[in-house]
TrEMBL record:
<dbReference type="GO" id="GO:0043539">
    <property type="term" value="F:protein serine/threonine kinase activator activity"/>
</dbReference>
<dbReference type="InterPro" id="IPR017441">
    <property type="entry name" value="Protein_kinase_ATP_BS"/>
</dbReference>
<dbReference type="InterPro" id="IPR047173">
    <property type="entry name" value="STRAD_A/B-like"/>
</dbReference>
<dbReference type="GO" id="GO:0004672">
    <property type="term" value="F:protein kinase activity"/>
</dbReference>
<keyword id="KW-0547">Nucleotide-binding</keyword>
<comment type="similarity">
    <text>Belongs to the protein kinase superfamily. STE Ser/Thr protein kinase family. STE20 subfamily.</text>
</comment>
<dbReference type="InterPro" id="IPR011009">
    <property type="entry name" value="Kinase-like_dom_sf"/>
</dbReference>
<protein>
    <recommendedName>
        <fullName>Protein kinase domain-containing protein</fullName>
    </recommendedName>
</protein>
<feature type="binding site">
    <location>
        <position position="40"/>
    </location>
    <ligand>
        <name>ATP</name>
    </ligand>
</feature>
<dbReference type="GO" id="GO:0005524">
    <property type="term" value="F:ATP binding"/>
</dbReference>
<dbReference type="InterPro" id="IPR000719">
    <property type="entry name" value="Prot_kinase_dom"/>
</dbReference>
<dbReference type="Pfam" id="PF00069">
    <property type="entry name" value="Pkinase"/>
</dbReference>
<feature type="domain" description="Protein kinase">
    <location>
        <begin position="11"/>
        <end position="273"/>
    </location>
</feature>
<keyword id="KW-0067">ATP-binding</keyword>
């Protein structure tokens, strides 16, 4: 394809500049041309896709010839990955920019310019019979010259389909829930290029607010809200700053009836776009004060990791660990939680409960329609009924980077091989801007964040993944592994190849997410909430993998989750621990050792309590719904836009929910018993600790006397 070699040795991978549900994107140099390129490495093991399909898709992608669409320069297989070489867009995606510096969205001028270029791309694709299928801020890429290009066309879509034949591939829709048009979620209602117009409208809101509508909800909830709720728009107080043209344009895109949505061609004629500034006048200033993309990515990874740790940390655990740290004289938790929470796309309310609810909803949808969610990214795929896409046959021009810039970069790199990790001229601290103000993340703050992740990641992982005995040793080894990976990743940012483990560990979520995950977040948490966590998947034991029903960022919900507490032989752990504690006391082992040991036990108890609370909450909310509906489950959407087959699904859903409630009730009874026993043991251990301390004090006094 177009003079680019398919020999991996001709490419030198530099840093990671993004990742999605299907792979990781690197900045790289194409050595024969001494040219910067981006390489998206699709992990074929993870995608389980037919390589020929993929190649065909990459071929199609390489035929794209439009200044607003990212094309593939070439593609080839490397071990179990497919590398797709693309022009490098040195300012990354709009989502990146939002996350790093514009958490409340862009100015209307900027939005107008970006959307207009994106719409030109859509017009081009639609004219050639293509549907993009995944229009969102994470797929709108920018470069320093203010070029705006729509990415992720073709290959990604193919990757979501495991069918292995092209025709079926075309019947499979790929998208990210927050951005998906209502008709894509309804059986029997075909969709066409107007689905991209809906996603385009959602993207407009994403650029305006800093996150997509519903982005803080889990994917299944987003699907239901998209069907049931009125279309989102720019109608709130906070939207007063936007022009009526902008509001009107968004409203035109977000009409539930696809036939009433304008085509890309028609939309381009809207006054909002007629008045849009050329990107050179508006977009350039977006990144004027920002550090290079790869440094931003590192900052985002750290932020995502810290956010994840914070948002997933139940208060009881926080207290336990805080107490433990205080006692050890380490008051290291000194960073701004509010600031972290401010990143809307990563904030999740009642995530855990929602995840459990999702499982039930998911079962319903599985019957309702073949559907799968990669909640790492929040990306949903589902079988649908149409997607006409024809081949296009235009040829392409190559993307060039100024020779002087490249030489400068390459020389710099030769002199200082570590320059990828720390750009000369940049302070050691990573800088990012939020809402126009520059925030400096001092090294120490970042280190603290990492420290935080180490500690908190440990607790969270126990809760999410442990399906076997929860033993202190297991906990510690998980934690050490994760800690090792985090540090390794930070230290070896430039060691990209052959570091799969390291690599996977680093995938912070991207829901929305977005989503965050995101949803994709997420995925594109540098993308959903947070979008990725191969490492976590890999860390699941086989049993868990087999039962994986959902992945959320670093965390997953498996069909065993609800059995998790049952699976943990709480009493045996405690009994054993309690016995060993007594033995230790009688054997005269040091107080600090015992304190740590007991604190571990305390933490475990808290975690178990938290799990039980989640189950209780889940049950209570289900019961509340039941009561409020006079013993009936909530009715399914009955809008005129939903066809009759939903009714059949309603009784199925009702049956599944009732089943789930009775399952939960049984579990609750078991768990309540276990909790009571656990509380008793906890109290006994506390008493032993007190007795032991008293004994120690007495001994000391005796010694002094
Ligand atoms: N050509 C490129 N140049 C520079 N950065 C890129 C390029 N392509 C992608 N990126 C960066 O990598 C991020 C992830 O890209 P990717 O296509 O993997 O995301 P995604 O659409 O969220 O995932 P997926 O396609 O797997 O569903 C983008 O949001 C963007 O920031």
């Amino acid at each position: 394809m177009g003079g680019y070699s398919t020999n991996p040795a001709d490419y030198k991978l530099l840093e990671e500049v993004g990742y999605g549900a299907t792979g990781t994107v690197y900045r790289a140099i194409y050595l024969p041309f001494n040219q910067l390129v981006a390489i998206k490495s699709f992990d074929l093991d993870r995608c389980n896709v037919n390589l020929d399909d993929l190649r065909r898709e990459a071929q199609t992608m390489s035929l794209i010839d439009h200044p607003n669409v990212v094309r593939a320069l070439c593609s080839f297989a490397v071990d179990r990955s497919l590398w797709v070489v693309m022009p490098f867009m040195d300012q990354g995606s709009c989502l990146h920019l939002i996350k790093i510096a514009y958490s409340h969205g862009f100015h209307e001028d900027v939005i107008g310019s970006i959307l207009k270029e994106t719409l030109k791309a859509l017009h081009y694709l639609h004219r050639h019979g293509h549907i993009h299928g995944d229009v969102k801020a994470g797929n709108i890429l920018l470069d320093t010259s203010a070029s705006v290009r729509l990415a992720d066309f073709g290959v990604s879509a193919c990757l979501y389909d495991n069918a292995g034949d092209r025709h079926r591939s075309r019947n499979t829709f790929v998208g990210t829930p927050c951005w998906m048009a209502p008709e894509m979620l309804q059986p029997g209602s075909g969709y066409n290029s107007k689905a991209d117009i809906w996603s385009f409208g959602i993207t407009a809101l994403e650029l305006a607010h800093g996150h997509a509508p519903f982005s803080k909800y889990p994917p299944m909830k987003v699907l239901l809200m998209t069907i049931q709720n009125a279309p989102p728009g720019l109608d709130y107080d906070r939207d007063k700053k936007f022009s009526k043209y902008f509001k009107e344009m968004v409203a035109m895109c977000l009409v539930k009836d696809q036939t009433k949505r304008p085509s890309a061609e028609k939309l381009l004629k809207h006054s909002f776009f007629k008045h849009a500034k050329p990107p050179e006048l508006s977009v350039k200033k977006l990144f004027a004060d920002l550090p290079p993309l790869w440094n931003r990515v590192k900052a985002l990874q750290l932020k995502d990791a810290a956010q994840l740790a914070v948002k997933k940390m139940p208060s009881t655990e926080e207290e336990a660990i805080s107490r433990s740290q205080y006692q050890q004289g380490v008051s290291a938790w000194n960073f701004d939680i509010d600031d972290l929470k401010a990143q809307a796309s990563l904030v999740r309310d009642d995530d855990d409960i929602a995840e459990m609810r999702e499982e039930a909803e998911k079962k319903f949808f599985t019957n309702y329609k073949a559907i799968a969610i990669d909640s790492q990214s929040g990306t949903v795929k589902m079988n649908s009924e149409k997607s006409p896409q024809n081949k296009i046959t235009s040829q392409v021009g190559a993307f060039d980077i100024k020779q002087t810039e490249q030489d400068e970069y390459l020389n710099k790199k030769e002199k200082n091989p570590k320059s990828d990790l720390q750009e000369p001229g940049l302070p050691k601290n990573i800088i990012w801007k939020r809402n126009g103000s520059i925030t400096e993340a001092t090294t120490s703050t970042l280190e603290k964040d990492i420290g935080m992740c180490k500690i908190k990641g440990q607790s969270r992982k126990i809760r999410q993944t442990q399906s076997g005995p929860l033993l202190p040793g297991t906990v510690l080894s998980h934690s050490a592994l994760e800690r090792g990976r985090t540090l390794e990743r930070l230290e070896n940012g430039n060691q990209l190849l052959g570091e799969k483990n390291n690599h996977e560990a680093r995938r912070a979520p991207s829901f929305s997410g977005p989503l965050m995950l995101p949803m994709r977040a997420s995925a594109n948490s540098l993308s959903a909430p947070i979008k990725s966590s191969g490492g976590f998947i890999d860390s699941l034991d086989d049993k868990s993998k087999a039962n994986l029903v959902q992945i959320k960022g670093r965390f997953s919900v498996t069909s065993e989750n609800l059995d998790l507490v049952k699976d943990i032989p709480v009493s045996s752990v405690s009994r054993r621990s309690s016995q060993s504690t007594k033995d230790s006391i009688t054997n005269g082992i040091s107080a600090s050792f015992l304190t740590t040991h007991l604190q571990n036990l305390l933490q475990q108890t808290s975690i178990q309590q938290d799990l039980i609370m989640n189950l209780l909450n889940s049950l209570q909310s289900a019961e509340a719904i039941e009561v409020s509906q006079n013993g009936k489950l909530p009715p399914l959407p009955r809008s005129s836009e939903i066809n009759g087959s939903v009714d059949t699904a309603a009784s199925e859903r009702e049956r599944l929910l009732l089943l789930k409630i009775s399952e939960l009730q049984t579990q609750m009874i078991t768990l309540t018993g276990e909790l009571t026993a656990e509380k008793l043991k906890h109290m006994q251990l506390q008493q032993q600790l007190i007795l032991y301390s008293q004994e120690q004090n007495r001994d000391k006094r005796d010694e002094v006397a």
